[in-house]
Amino acid sequence: MNDFKARAKELVSQMTLEEKCSQLRFDSPAIERLDIPAYNWWNEGLHGLARAGTATMFPQAIGIAATFDTELTERIAEIIAIEARAKYNAYSAHGDRDIYKGLTIWSPNINIFRDPRWGRGHETFGEDPYLTALMGVAYVKGLQGDGEYMTAAACAKHFAVHSGPEELRHEFDAEVSDEDLYETYLYAFEKLVKAGVQGVMGAYNRVNGEPACANTELMRILREDWGFDGYFVSDCWAIQDFHMHHKVTSNFIESAALALTKGCDVNCGCSYAYILQAYNEGLVTEAEIDCSVEKLFETRIKLGLFDNTYLDNIPYDVVDCAEHNAVSLEAAEKSMVLLKNDGILPLDKSSVKSIAVIGCSADSTDSLKGNYYGTASGYTTFLQGIKDACGEEIRVHYSEGCDFTKDRSECLAQPYDRISEAIICAEQSDVTILCVGLNEHIEGEEGDTGNEYASGDKASLLLPESQRKLIKAVLDTGKPVIVVLSAGSSVTIDDDRENALICAWYAGPHGGTALAEIIFGEISPSGKLPVTFYKDTDKLPEFTDYSMKNRTYRYIENNDNVLYPFGYGLTYSEFECRIVSVNGDTVTVEAENVGNYDSGEVIQLYKDAKTGNPQLCGIKRIYLMKGEKAQFEVTADIAEGDKLYCGFGQPEKENS
């Protein structure tokens, strides 16, 4: 049996102190005398292999979460790993060991999307720890595989208690109770560690006074309570925050020493360039350096990087192949959530002669991407998907309608210069598909967005004024309107006169195809909200308050502020279900499609919780033909005596 730990220890024992210190950097240099090639630890694969050229891309993580489909999530991660390995094999053969070309994937992001204002929330699997854990574990299993060697290495981030504000993240102290720490913020991390995740990334902020990347209590929980034996990496340039912003150290040397002695093995950033000086000043020991370097080489050996393995034979041809793109389309189809439908959907092509496709998101590839994306070999926008579906039979009128945020599309024009065109297109058409929303330049990570007034966070749940004016103008025409919302978070459409509303998230390169299939009834929508959609932020706690009181569906106290609840999503059919039996953690559920359409659905099990609100404890994605009835086994997180509710969304609060 391959003893990875012993092999790593033996290899590290042959290194000089200087060589060992060099391996603690994310861009680890080669040690030629030991036949150790250079290795860059930094790679991204949140929803497809990112930032290193062409790869199969998928819906953003929040859209994957909306599928409520763990099997699909595992398959997506498996594809990401296979393509990462194929690229690594090809790049290495050409001597290219640059950033974003290694096999240590710094995903998934399993932080809890506790507040809809957080710009990075769309990188997560939503607001529920149980759902986040299920999807995260599926991702880890798919990415790492079950062979002797890992296909790629997953990394759970950002440990821990991290979900904004982006503007304050380098100096912020997240104060949290033990109850919220364990029941909300650490729940998914524990599940992923016990599922074998190879890496954990620390967060920028402090947690109860100590920086997350050098936090005594968090490291104790991670290493001692949970038995984590993989590598720990800092968030990028987080260690320099110790002295520059948190003010817990005085300089780079002290910051590097604090991080290493607390258990941070590799530094994304430049602070570990000072480790040798820290050693010379007596702030770290060689044994502490050895401990971290051994963990890093154990990971590399587990990846087979020092052996000739079956993984070396994965060919470049798998990258962006048709089979992988078919899974991307499936994910887009299952992710879209039908929030409202007065019966207008699905559209009957035989009764429609003209369609207006209007809005800043209609022909925008940015509306499909999210962030942390790679390069898809092609994108089918919503406009193109609808045009392809309409063919020559239905006339499609198009107007951009407005810019995402600016008050005009042409700099020399008067404000709202595209609205009259939008009105004309709507008036000329039998129905309008109005595509609005956000993109990564409006909501995202601090430093990565154009939304610098909030560093990527949202100040409001409302769409930008340019889009609100467009929506009103189109609705005022009195023509039927289907609104398609591209966003990664709770967004309020403050004019609710639309006939139907579809949340498309950031749907990936095949988003336009999936949307057209849903609109014209080729498939039934079946996605579910992994977050609560709120009416406004006035009744939410302060963004900087990390207490879970009155946050998310699990703790909310004011249902009047809920626009659409967690777990909600319509289909074109109607389903019924009932619990048949409970045997340990296995719940047998009988479901029946009593409507008129074949459709997917998601069985959702909830249990009473001490918060007074129902809590998700089991999910199962199903597919039934119209009139079909079947029994399904659902694995649930339950204890004897728990009162269970079975349905296709949350039970009503008064019944729980």
Whole-number average pLDDT?
A: 96
Number of helices, counting only DSSP H or I runs of 4 residues or more? 19
Shape verdict: globular
Describe the main β-sheet briefly. Answer: 6 strands, mixed
Please report the distance between the alpha carbons of the first and last residues.
Answer: 52 Å
Strand order of the largest sheet: 9-14-13-12-10-11
Low-confidence sequence ranges: none
CATH topology of the largest domain: Rossmann fold
CATH C-level class of the largest domain: Alpha Beta
Strand content: 15-25%
Helical content (DSSP H or I, runs of 4+): 25-40%
Rg is 25 Å
Number of strands: 22
| Domain unit count | 3
Alpha-beta content class? alpha/beta
- Name the CATH superfamily classification of the largest domain: Glycoside hydrolase family 3 C-terminal domain
- Any idea what the CATH architecture of the largest domain is? 3-Layer(aba) Sandwich
